[in-house]
Amino acid sequence: MASSDQTRLLLVEDVPQVAQYIRGLLNSQSTVKLLDVLSDGSKVLAQVQQLRPDVVLVDALLQGRIKGLVLAEQLAASGLGVPVIVLTVPQNPVVIDVAKGIHGVLAMPFSGFDLMNRIVQVRKDFATISTTGSSRIYSVFAPKGGVGKTTIAFNLAVALGQADQRTVLIDGSLQFGDLRSLLKVPVDAPSILDLPTDRVAESDLQDVLWRDPSGIDILLAPPRVEMAEMVTARDLDKILSLLRRVYGSIVIDMSSALNDINLSFLDLSDTIVEIVTYDSTTIHNTIAVADAFRMIGYPASKVRYLVNRADSPGGIEPVDLERAIGRVPEHRVVSDGLLVVQSNNEGVPFVLANPSAAISQDLHRVAAELLAASGIIRPAAAGRR
Ligand SMILES: Nc1ncnc2c1ncn2[C@@H]1O[C@H](COP(=O)(O)OP(=O)(O)OP(=O)(O)O)[C@@H](O)[C@H]1O
Ligand SMILES: [Mg+2]
């Protein structure tokens, strides 16, 4: 987003004289375009969704059902990704508080120069925050069934959530809906098919996501095998770009096939977390897939290998695995038959059920390593700025 672009502004102001004053200041220039002036706070979310302003200017003293500062908080919570400048008077000081949706403050009286400067600056600052905290898609994939994709994806998503990332988990095993069965969700729980495909909006997400007790949101697979075909690669593109606007981390639990849908998931991912185990078929398939990825043109750095059950080599030496995949795997998760089976049977993540277990610590480390590799956190810091 070049700062030379015109900034689209939405003004929320119920005092006609103030609205008129701001209109006047903006009339004589073309850097900021005033999209509309709204006087009713309750209409703002819908309008932001429709008009897609770059910045919203809200009067702190807005009267009516929704007051100015409440509106700022609502905008922040909505995940619409728009910064707010609060307009106030010196007698009613307001401080910048990004957590409360206040990205800038402008106290009256102000000049046209003050107004423009503040708008342009807030937009620029917000773009910086958005890219450093920008969304990452991690697809958990393996070219072999039963190696732990669903188990790892679920626990990794919860661990990312605990690392302060707003996280959504997608049940990308569209035919069998592995997470549906793991979490024992009712058959009538909404799924990816309930998202409208023509024009998906952020408000639609609220009705479609499964809010898991573990604290993450889950986009479930269709409830029946044959319904998987109703999801197209084009839908995925739209759905993922929508989720990117709302979530910091998006984890996809995939099935093993290399079909159209899975290739779309992989294309759209920033990182493929590819699970390998010390098992000759898995290793054979992993090499075949590495070739396929190379042909597609994926950079080697797009894939990060995760050795699952890393403490049970079963006849194959770690060095053989390294030779086969051509590098030292980036991540390791130990085996813990009892805890994994028990947690999976209860539909709870082991990272919550037994946080001190070695396998849980491994998952937290994988989460931190992924965030560090994406430049979202420094290796030592697990929290977000
Ligand atoms: N680190 C581990 N320690 C012990 N058991 C594990 C571990 N990881 C996975 N398992 C077990 O392996 C089995 C397969 O796991 P999971 O269903 O997660 O694999 P998957 O790759 O998603 O399978 P599918 O290909 O069917 O989707 C499960 O019974 C699970 O409990
Ligand atoms: Mg699975």
What does this 3D model show about the protein?
The protein has 2 domains: 7-131, 3-Layer(aba) Sandwich (Rossmann fold), CATH 3.40.50.2300; 133-373, P-loop containing nucleotide triphosphate hydrolases (Rossmann fold). It is built from 14 helices and 13 strands. The protein has helices at residues 16-27, 44-51, 68-78, 112-132, 149-162, 178-183, 202-208, 233-246, 260-268, 280-296, 318-325, 337-346, 350-353, 358-373, and strands at 7-12, 32-38, 55-59, 84-88, 104-107, 136-141, 167-171, 210-211, 217-219, 249-253, 271-276, 303-308, 331-333. It has an 8-stranded mixed β-sheet with strand order 8-9-7-10-6-11-12-13, sandwiched between helices. The protein is elongated, with a radius of gyration of 24 Å.
Characteristic key phrases:
16% strand, binds adenosine-5'-triphosphate, alpha/beta, disordered C terminus, binds magnesium ion, 385 residues, Rossmann fold, 2 domains, 13 strands
Q: Give the ligands present.
A: adenosine-5'-triphosphate, magnesium ion
User: CATH top level of the largest domain?
Assistant: Alpha Beta
Give me the count of strands.
Answer: 13
CATH superfamily of the largest domain: P-loop containing nucleotide triphosphate hydrolases
Domain count: 2
Q: Give the low-confidence spans.
A: 378-385
- The number of helical runs is 14
How helix-rich are the residues, as a percent range? 40-55%
Assembly status: single chain
What structural class do the secondary elements suggest? Answer: alpha/beta
Rg value: 24 Å
Which percent band covers the strand fraction? 15-25%
**Order of SSEs:** EHEHEHEEHEHEHHEEHEHEHEHEHHH
CATH topology of the largest domain: Rossmann fold
| Broad shape | elongated
